[in-house]
Amino acid sequence: MSAEDCDVMVNVLMLGDYGVGKTCVMHRFAEDRFLEDATSSTSLDFKVKKFHYKGKEVRINVWDTAGKEKLDSALSYTYYRGANGVILVYDATNIKTFKVLHEWIDKVQKNCFEDTPIILVANKMDLKEKITVDTAEAQKLVDKYDSVIGFYEISTKSGNNVNEIFVKLLMHLVQQNQKSKRRVSNRPLAAVIEDTTDTGHCCVIL
């Protein structure tokens, strides 16, 4: 499905170091399943979530560049500039993946449009005995950057909080579009997704 085949299309870019579980996040969101034998992706990965709302076709494209944007400046420009929002993932059991988050945020701020929102995600929260990153430390990082609009602790194994990440991002884009009238796809997002603030979430994703 192209932009001409749907009423609204939102592009979401997944970022984060190797092994943090970006691919698992994508599969859990798009297909509601956990990849038991998932390995670090070495190629571009792409998943789609489609749904109808008020008779309109909505499509969320989720991209994982598998770290290749670090090596290819042209690829970096294409995917960063094409993103309406960014989901930045770290492994809660591996503090090294947390310590480099500021580098990823800097890349987003350098390559994406100025108002591109970022959601910070701590993955593998089901491995409670192995967690090495304190929630308070993650929140400090969120508070430091205006572009980081939310923080979620998730488990792709159980599915806990995975859908909520995308709901948060979508609702932010709705509000952003209503204020700026910026088109996030081939048609104004706010013209398609409306009256969702009554419940505080967009139930069509869940």
Explain how this protein is built.
The protein is α/β, with parallel strands linked by helices and 206 residues long. It has seven helices and six strands. A six-stranded mixed β-sheet has the order 2-3-1-4-5-6, sandwiched between helices. The longest helix has 19 residues, at 162-180.
Helix segment tally: 7
Strand content: 15-25%
Q: Please bin the fraction of helical residues.
A: 25-40%
Major sheet summary line: 6 strands, mixed
Sheet with the most strands: spatial strand order: 2-3-1-4-5-6
The shape is globular
Low-confidence stretches: 185-206
Write the H/E string, N to C.
Answer: EHEEHEHHEHEHH
C-alpha Rg (nearest Å): 16 Å
Terminus-to-terminus distance: 21 Å
Number of strands: 6
Summed over residues and divided by their number, the pLDDT gives a mean of 80
Outline of the structure:
This protein has helices spanning 22-31, 73-81, 95-99, 101-111, 135-144, 162-180, 189-192; strands spanning 8-15, 45-53, 56-64, 85-91, 118-123, 148-153. By secondary structure, the chain is an alpha/beta fold. The protein has a 6-stranded mixed sheet with strand order 2-3-1-4-5-6, sandwiched between helices.
Question: Keywords for this structure?
Answer:
206 residues; alpha/beta
Describe the secondary-structure layout.
Layout: E1 8-15, H1 22-31, E2 45-53, E3 56-64, H2 73-81, E4 85-91, H3 95-99, H4 101-111, E5 118-123, H5 135-144, E6 148-153, H6 162-180, H7 189-192
Parallel strand pairs: 1-3, 1-4, 4-5, 5-6
Antiparallel strand pairs: 2-3
